[in-house]
Write a structure and sequence with these properties.
Shape: globular
Strand order of the largest sheet: 6-5-7-8-4-9
Number of helices: 11
Largest sheet: 6 strands, parallel
Length: about 325
């Protein structure tokens, strides 16, 4: 049996990978079915099975990336990584964006299944609570497609729903008026690649961020198109958007049906479209829950409390 070794240059990171009293290594051993040995800044396993070695490399690489990201503690990271290995092949559960400093990994099993849909379906609907990763992962996959030259353009849009103020009375030109609505989408892009890359692609017309009204009358070919906050579309707006899809394009639709801001007389285009399209096999559907919220532990508890209240009312 041969030994497979991974070198982790940073001593602080390897300490986090191992965990308190090697608790993280024990979890990794249980997942791989082999023992993990440490020597200085090296992690090794005794395995001649190439698949086990590849899985070990993937797990450690991902844990190191997540630790560098710093958004979760090492124990949560290791549990998240190992949980997402159970049902989806490791090669299918990361988004490798050309030129980005790190890969984008799912933090939960549902997120892993969502990425799988994004990469295998031409149209995907994803619903979920704030912080569940529905928009972030869609943007990451879209940027991968554009930066790897699989698609020639990325178009990101969302409905402009006026909450108490008319756009006509807001100060500035049209771009300044709609910028607050579209800022979260730019934030998502800048979270997975550099600000310079986003700026360069935007100036070149490769990335277009625009309100939903700008989609009317267009046919979008060889593009990846994201509709965010889709719960705030009307039925006619959703139909208009979905029929913009041209040849060799992909469409990702994200939204939270619990956060509908439309006037009461209008039904949500997102809810309606899912209800009539769910039987079409070529379309992917994913529902993320409070368990998929990765922003902050408190956010997860808040979302779960609202979900529990809704179930009680029903």
């Amino acid at each position: 049996m041969s030994e497979y070794t991974i070198v982790v240059p940073d001593n602080n990171i390897i300490s986090c990978v191992c965990g308190t009293n090697d608790s993280n290594l024990k979890l990794i051993e249980e997942s791989l079915g082999v023992s993990v040995y440490t020597k200085g800044n090296e992690l090794s396993i005794d395995a001649s099975d190439q698949q086990i070695c590849q899985k070990f490399q993937f797990i450690i690489d991902r844990i190191v990336d997540e630790i560098n990201d710093g958004s979760l503690n090492s124990e949560d990271i290791v549990l998240s990584v190992l949980n997402t290995q159970k049902k989806v092949n490791a090669d299918e559960i990361c988004i490798n964006i050309p030129g980005a400093a790190k890969k984008v990994y799912p933090r939960t099993q549902h997120q892993a299944e969502y990425i799988n849909l994004l990469q295998t379906k031409d149209m995907v609907f994803c619903t979920g609570s704030a912080g569940s990763g529905k928009t972030y992962l869609a943007v990451a996959e879209a940027l991968r497609l554009v930066l790897s030259h699989k698609k020639s353009k990325l178009i990101i849009t969302r409905p402009v729903v006026e909450a108490g103020e008319s756009l006509g009375y807001l100060p500035g030109d049209l771009e300044q008026k709609i910028n607050p609505y579209l800022r979260p989408l730019r934030d998502a892009m800048e979270a997975v690649t550099s600000i310079e890359t986003v700026k360069k692609l935007t100036e070149a017309g490769v990335i277009e961020v625009a309100p939903l009204a700008y989609m009317r009358g267009r046919t979008l070919n060889n593009a990846v198109i994201i509709l965010d906050e889709a719960q705030n579309t009307t039925n006619s707006q959703m139909k208009m958007f979905l029929t913009r899809m041209g040849e060799n394009s992909k469409v990702f639709v994200t939204g939270d049906p619990t956060q509908i801001d439309l006037p009461k007389k209008h039904s949500s285009g997102l809810v309606h479209s899912i209800s009539i399209l769910y039987k079409i096999e070529d379309i992917g559907f994913m529902e993320l829950t409070a368990e998929d919220v990765v922003r902050n532990r408190l956010v997860k508890k808040i979302v779960r409390a609202y979900e529990n209240e809704k179930q009680t009312e029903e």
